[in-house]
Design goal:
heterodimer, A: alpha+beta, Methane Monooxygenase Hydroxylase, Chain G, domain 1, 6 strands, B: mainly alpha, GINS_Sld5 (chain B), nucleus (chain B), GINS_bundle-like_dom_sf (chain B), GINS_A (chain B), DNA replication complex GINS protein SLD5 (chain B)
């Protein structure tokens, strides 16, 4: 059988998010010469030494691991830009524009391309601070759910993935309670999704 | 105004011709994973990807035979692995959904038509096996009125033991272009009137079913 009746099949694991992030284009400077690569997912190359080229992240990391290139840091990951973004995150309630996969990209670059990042420790601590501030905002925003449709500007892939299950169930419950005329059939016990503990305020019970 | 419109039409056209099959497969995989019901099978896309994978596998063997540099070989292998993963995961998610809503899928023509030929065969064999298994183990031993797989008892008016996909689950989506009220079903016009492009939106799945089918929305 293809799999158990897995109710979590609609959730993406972190690895799958990383998989999607690895398709982002990055710039590399190869130190070898290689003919064009005609992949199923596109054509890249030919590569000449010291000439910058645009390749997907997974290819860049593969070449980097074998010592065949250096990865050029993306624009948005410079210390100045990150400091500016961090300031802006702290000052406003909205999310600052950052690449959708910024967490995955920065993590992969820290793990595999350390030498190519000037001021690596500074950059890393900035990214972590940004992550913390943003996630804190996510948490405070969650407390403000009321409408049936919620929009978020500039949230990134990992942040969205982390709250997907909880927020989905919460919004569904809000929606259900808003539209009381739904038939009882929608509450079938056959819908075997595991109960995720939620922080919704409990009903006030009548004092005894 | 006309130039702006034609510029955006050109953008769409360029995007269309430059989108690779792998991009399309990735989008189909993401949508399939996030949606609570099974979506239309992308038979031509899957066919093309299969052919490209076979070609790549043949190239692998040619490389091995010609002693091409191992670096290049391993890079081609990585690309092949990634594409195979997407294809397999896509098919696997669909099979999971079929298994989950087995009887409902076979009952409803709309869903049945969204399956590929092999998936339909799989679904039928599955129901046969499951049906005969349940019959032998449990149903034959129940009193006469309760022996159906689909109905709780003969007195039920409809197949009330068949779970249907929950279309009111919430999904996260992003619109590829500005959507006005016309793009949504009229009965939901009270709930949702527009959607800006590239804005992450948490929304009830059934509201966005129509634009999803028209390819104007991506689930995230």
């Amino acid at each position: 059988m293809a799999g158990q009746s897995d109710s979590t099949m609609s959730l993406f694991s972190s690895e799958e998010i990383e998989f999607m992030a690895e398709d982002e284009m990055t710039e590399i400077v190869p130190n070898l010469r290689m003919d064009s690569l005609n992949f199923i997912c596109g054509d890249y190359g030919p590569f000449l030494p010291q000439l910058a080229a645009q390749v997907p992240l997974w290819l860049a990391l593969a070449l980097k691991k074998r010592g065949k290139c250096t990865i050029r840091l993306p624009q948005w990951m410079s210390v100045e830009n990150l400091t500016r973004v961090l300031e802006a995150e702290r000052d406003s309630h909205a999310f600052q524009p950052l690449p959708f996969h910024y967490i995955e990209i920065s993590r992969l670059l820290f793990d595999h391309a350390r030498e190519d990042i000037p001021d690596m420790y500074m950059v890393r601590s900035l990214v972590e601070d940004i992550r913390d501030v943003r996630f804190h905002k996510v948490e405070t925003n969650l407390e403000k759910f009321t409408a049936s449709t919620v929009t978020w500007k500039n949230m990134s892939a990992m942040e969205v993935n982390v709250i997907r299950a909880f927020a989905g169930r919460a919004l569904q419950a809000f929606y259900k309670h808003d539209n009381e005329q739904q038939t009882p059939d929608t509450d079938r016990a056959l819908d075997k999704q595991p109960q995720i503990p939620t922080d919704r305020p409990k009903r006030n019970l009548k004092p005894r | 105004m006309a130039t702006e419109e034609s510029a955006s039409v050109m953008d769409d056209y360029e995007m269309l011709i430059s989108t690779t099959d792998v991009e399309l497969l990735k989008r189909a995989w993401r949508n399939e994973k996030a949606a609570p019901e099974i979506l239309q099978f992308e038979s031509s896309l899957v066919q093309r990807i299969k052919e490209q994978i076979e070609l790549a596998e043949q190239n692998e063997e040619i490389f091995e035979a010609n002693n091409i540099e191992p670096l290049t070989v391993s890079l081609y292998q990585m690309d092949l692995d990634r594409t195979q993963f997407l294809l397999r995961s896509y098919l696997r998610v669909r099979l999971q959904k079929i298994e989950k809503y087995l009887f409902y899928v076979l009952k409803t023509d709309e869903y049945l038509n969204r399956l590929s030929k092999q998936e339909q065969m799989f679904a039928r064999r599955c129901t046969d096996d499951l049906g005969s298994h349940l019959d032998e183990t449990v149903l034959a031993k129940l009193p006469d009125n309760y022996r159906s797989i689909l109905k709780q008892s003969i007195t039920s008016e409809e197949d009330d033991m068949v779970p249907a996909p929950r279309l009111d689950t919430f999904v996260i989506c992003k619109a590829k272009q500005y959507l006005s009220g016309l793009d949504f079903e009229p009965e939901y016009s009270m709930e949702i009137t527009e959607m800006e492009r590239d804005l992450l939106t948490f929304v009830c799945y059934k509201f966005v079913k129509k634009p999803l089918e028209n390819g104007k929305i991506d689930l995230v």
